[in-house]
Amino acid sequence: MPLFKLRKEEGWEPPLGGETYRGRPQFQDACIGCGACAEVCPPKAIQVKDQGDERVIELDFGKCIRCGQCASACPVEGIKVTPTDGVFVRGEERKIVVKRKLVRCENCGQPITTIDHFRWMVERLGTLSFSNPTLIRFATATDSAGPFRILCPRCRRLEYLSDHGWRAKY
Amino acid sequence: MEIEQLIEKLRQKLPTEEIETKPHIGGKERIFVLINAPKIADAARAIKEMGGRLCTISCVERFSLFELIYHFSLDREGVMVNLKTTVKKTDPEVDSVTPIIRGAAFIEREIHDLFGVKFKGHPSLKRLILSEQWKGNPPLRRE
Amino acid sequence: MPEITIGPVHPLLDEPVAVKLEVEGKTIKAAEIQIGFIHRGIEKLSERMTFEQVTFLVERICGICSNVHPLCFVQAVEDIGGIEVPERAKYIRTIIAELERIHSHLLWLGIAGHILGAHEIFLKSWRYREPVLDIFELVCGNRQNYAMMAVGGVRKDIPSAYVPKIIETLKFLKEKVPKLAEEVRSSLGKRLRDIGVLTKENAISYCTTGPTARATGLPIDTRKNHPYAAYPELEFEIVNRDEGDVLAQTEVRMGEIIQSIHILEQALRNLPPGEIRAEFKNIPPGEGIGLAEAPRGEDIHYVRTNGTNMPERHKIRAPTYVNLPALEAMLPGNKLEDAFIIVASIDPCFSCTDRVTIVNERGEERVVSEEELLRMSRNAAL
């Protein structure tokens, strides 16, 4: 890499360490939008923002400490640590963003999680997912509403207790 | 020296009856001794005469007390002896061990800065970590 | 008597400290140390982060002893939970700790050379440091903040493909370091002899640790007194000298580099196979103490938990904290031009000593004013 080229216009490139260098994290296509990376990030550089029917996960690279915990905690290799790095980051380079479609509770309207996350859960649980009315909707992959509603855990439990619990018999 | 012999020796020398040990995986057990606040200086002197080296003093805030833990290391035997004592939060005052162990000077000044515990007999209890213009509650307290 | 203050910000000091010297003519009569310029609030920040996050926070207390603070912290937490660390993880911890000791002592040799104007020694010792840092980049991913420690073991494994590279680096160091030591002795020995003498009684009464104490004849070393990681199974010696002056400390450090190479060869030869991390459910309420030997002395972390996944109180005492007051006994009686090398001879790491600046932007440190600290402590209480 040439010395004394300090600006991109002059031909500066971001420094590339060896392949094992722990540098800039990058979201991959495999990301399911679960938010595990945001929970473990020590400086809380990753924020999860739910707006409308979209979940935006945003990594502020200025706060990133390059620890790699996001990549360790991710269940699907949806975020990976690349060997590039940068010290002065401004503008669009500072935010690393991924967007996924969000699913909201049909009863209370609170965000539950993303469609991809549900599909991942169904794949991991296998036939056990048929014990959960919300997951059945994602397991059977049908567009029709069906008898079961998509509910957040709280509403799902309230509906079960009040509509189908032993009290409902009386 | 075995742990039991060491505990017996401590029981004779220190002004206390309550000595408990805590197992430590991969090493010798660690000894915790509960001492009343007025007797802490005598206890520190006794441990120093046994060859103990003061590692540090920790201060933990409880509901209405401050718990001070003096960590000593008996290097020859490879055992840690920790003296625990408590002072009230409303007027936290305890005897300083700096006249006995000179290395405790900075440590006690830091606890005074961050928690507000007063050490009687300390040669110069000035600000160590906080700046001179700091006004207000000692920072590491809950409030 | 005129007073001369060195610091807090000075081109020759790595980190801020104010050393007030009372001088008569050119001889120092008394000295007073003032610290606190890099106080960062790490103990307060620990109280609202989970155990895994605190491991990364304490890594950034110091740039040179970056491995020993997480090692001490995870040992304290394992002490509370009664977690047994697998054998392979213990050996990997030892390997990283000894590599760090080599690079820290070589860095100190360079600083000593730089302060005394021996630029060849500075350039050579920092040049020999580069292969060690390249090993870190290969194994851990970064030359400085290794992120290898985790509660219950280590985070990443050392694949066997990397072991020959480490052995090659050790061979290179074994050849070059003794020659460098000879050069230090012949060119700087006369200058460093009999200055900054610390007597054994003062070393005991100020509770010093590390090479500063070993140079006065005290045979204390946490790796032998309170063994941890894989040290009970490895053979090595404690390097001691008797004189207590700056030359003795230099000899102790150079001897320790050779001992570290010896430990590393044994550890790499006997690296056992197996798991690198133990599983555990949760950390019960209790208290624990972690001890480790940093390149500068003994490091101790005290952690108290209350059953949640965050520590309730985390107390850190870095080695320079107890070695600094010894300067008040080492400085008087020496000439003013020797003041710098005496202050540098205890290998001061003021970042470890103060531990209270806010580190949320990468690498940025600012001295925090009292309004900001007050706001921080109020926000933390919410």
Primary descriptors:
heterotrimer; B: 143 residues; five-stranded mixed sheet; two-stranded parallel sheet; 3 helices; 31% strand; elongated; C: 382 residues; alpha+beta; Cytochrome-c3 Hydrogenase, chain B; 15 helices; globular
Layout: helices, strands, pairs:
The complex is a heterotrimer of chains A (170), B (143) and C (382).
Chain A: E1 25-27, H1 36-40, E2 46-51, E3 54-60, H2 69-73, E4 79-81, E5 95-104, E6 111-114, H3 115-125, H4 133-140, H5 153-164
Helix pairs in contact in A: 3-4
Chain B: H1 3-13, E1 19-22, E2 30-34, H2 40-49, E3 52-61, E4 65-74, E5 79-88, E6 93-95, H3 104-115, E7 118-120
Parallel strand pairs in B: 2-5, 6-7
Antiparallel strand pairs in B: 1-2, 3-4, 4-5
Chain C: E1 3-6, E2 18-24, E3 27-34, H1 42-46, H2 51-59, H3 68-81, H4 87-116, H5 119-139, E4 149-150, E5 153-154, H6 163-192, H7 200-205, H8 211-214, H9 222-225, H10 246-269, E6 286-294, E7 297-305, E8 311-317, H11 319-323, H12 327-330, H13 339-345, H14 350-354, H15 370-381
Antiparallel strand pairs in C: 1-2, 2-3, 4-5, 6-7, 7-8
